[in-house]
Amino acid sequence: MTETLILHPDRFFPAEEAARKAARRIYDEIRALPIVSPHGHVDAAWFASDEPFEDPVSTFIWPDHYVLRTLYSQGITLAQLGRGGRGGEPAETDRRKIWRLFAELYPRLLGMPSRIWLDHVFATVFGLDVQLGPDMADHYFDTITEALATPQLRPRALYDRFNIEVLATTEGALDSHRHHRAIAASSWPGRILSTFRPDDVVDPENEHFAENLDRLAALTGESTRDWEGYLAALAVRRAQFRRDGGATATDHGHRTARTANLPLAKCRELFRRARGGRVNPQDAELFRAQMLTEMAAMSCSDGMTMQLHPGVWRNHNPGQFLAYGRDIGADIPMRMGYVEELKPLLDRFGNRAELCLILFTLDESTYSRELAPLAGHYPCLKLGPAWWFHDSPEGMLRLRRRTLESAGFYNTVGFNDDTRAFFSIPARHDLARRMDACFLAELVATHRLSLEQACAVAVDLTYNLPKSAYHF
Predict the structure, then answer these.
(1) From CA 145, how far away is CA 214, in angstroms rounded?
(2) Are 224 and 276 in contact (CB under 8 A)?
C-alpha cells in the first residue's frame, strides 16, 4: 500500500504546546539563514566541472556510508549494491536493479537519521509526495534521473538553491587543489574551501608512510629526511592549502586524543625510527601524539583552526577492508579520554586564545565528565557538534543537555554536516536547526531563558559561531 510522504511543519518540536509554540518562533528566526558548512567531504570536482549527477544510485547510495553500513547490516553485500571489490569480484551493474533492492529495504531505515535526510531530499528537491517502497521504486528512479539531467540540479545551481554561503571540503596532505584552483579561476562566486587533513603523513602505521614523506618533500621543496625538515615541509604544505584551496582549518582523525611534549632529541630519534619503518604500536601512538602538539604550534603561528576527530576503530571488519578498502561503513566508536590525553598540548597552548582547537567525540560519556569542563576553562578549546553516529535528533539533544551547564553555548561552534552526500546538506542543517529550536524552547518553557534570548542564541549557533570559529 502506497503511503503519502509528508514533512510535518512541527517535526521534532516538543509535544507540549507552550514549548512547541516557542520552538516554532525560534525556528522561524533561523530557518532561512544561509548554510555555513565548515567541515565536510563533498568532492570539489563537482563544482569545478559542474557536470550533472547521474542517477539515484550514484547520487544517494554509493557516496553515503551511513546507507551502505545499514544495508550491509541487513545482509546485503556491497557487490549487490554495485561496489566492485579489489579482487575483481563481479558487482551488479544494473542501477535500476540496485535501486529496486534499496527501495525494498527502505522501510528498514525507519527512525534512523539516513531516513530523515533522504525523505527531506525526496520531498523538497524532487517534489515526491509518496513514500519510497518496492511499488514506487521505478517511479522514484525515473523521476530523480530525469530531474538530475536538468540545469537546475547541477552542483553550482544546487549550491545556490540550498542557500549555501560557504562549503569546506577535506583533502589529504598529498592531494591536488586543481579543482579548487579551477573554481577560483571561474566566474562562479561560490565559496568552496579546502581543509588540511595530514593523517597520511603523520601516521607511521600507514603502510605508505615513507613513500608519503617522499611525496611531501616533492610537493614542498623541503627535505623530509630529518625532523626539522619534516616540520618545515608540513608548514609549507599548510601554506599551500591556504593559498590554493582557501583553507582556514585542519582536521585530524587520530585513533585517540593523546598528545605529547617530547624533548627535541627524542623527537628527532623517534622520527628517524618512524621514517625507517622501525616503530612498534606504542612508538607510533607516541609519534602521532607529538604531531598533534606540533600541529597546535603551527596553528598558533598561521591561525588555522584545528579539529580533532578521535575515537574510531577504523576498518574494524578486516574482510570488508581487504575486499573493498576504506570508508565502507565498518568504523566503530571506542571508549575515549581527553583530560589526561590533552594535558601535554594544553600545558603548552591551553591558555593561548589565538588557538582554536575544536574537539569531537563518539564517546558520549565524556560530554559532561571531561569535554564540557575542559572547554569551559581553556580559552583554546571549543566543542564540536554531535558527530557521526550521534548526528541525530536524540544525539543532538544529548550533547546540549550534557554540556550546557559546564561549557555554555558560546564554547561550542554550531553545526557541521561532515558529509560526502551533497544533497543531504540542507536536510542535515534543517534538522540541526530544529533540534536547537527544540532544546531552546524547553528552556523558554521552563523560564530559564526568555524567548528573545533563545532566538539570539539560535542565530549564533546556526550562523555566527561557525563563521567565527572557522575564520570565515
Answers:
(1) 44
(2) no
CA distances from 267 to 173, 264, 283 (A): 21, 5, 11
Helix, strand, coil percentages, rounded to 5, for the chain: 55, 5, 40
Is the CB of residue 207 less than 8 Å from the CB of residue 220?
no
pTM equals: 0.96
Each residue of 51-70: b (16+ CB within 10 Å) or e? eebebbbebbbbbbbbbbeb
| CB-count burial class (<10 Å; 0-12, 13-18, 19+) for 267 | buried
Which of helix, strand or coil describes residue 162? Answer: coil
Q: Return the ∠ at Cα 450 (arms to 449 and 451), rounded to 5°.
A: 115
Q: Cα dihedral angle (422, 427, 430, 431), rounded to 10 degrees? A: -120
**For 337-394, how does the pLDDT look when each residue is reduced to its tens digit (9 = 90+)?**
999 999 999 999 999 999 999 999 999 999 999 999 999 999 999 999 999 999 999 9
Q: Which domains does the chain have, with CATH numbers?
A: 17-44+163-170+183-190+238-262+290-469 (3.20.20.140), 53-153 (1.10.2020.10)
Residue partners of 19: CB distance under 8 A and separation at least 6: 13, 438, 441, 442, 444, 445
Residue 421 to residue 222: CA distance in whole angstroms:
36
pLDDT in tens, 30-46: 999 999 999 999 999 99
Cα distance between residue 106 and residue 359, in whole Å: 34
C-alpha span between 302 and 1 (Å, rounded): 59
Burial class (CB in 10 A: 0-12, 13-18, 19+), 419: buried
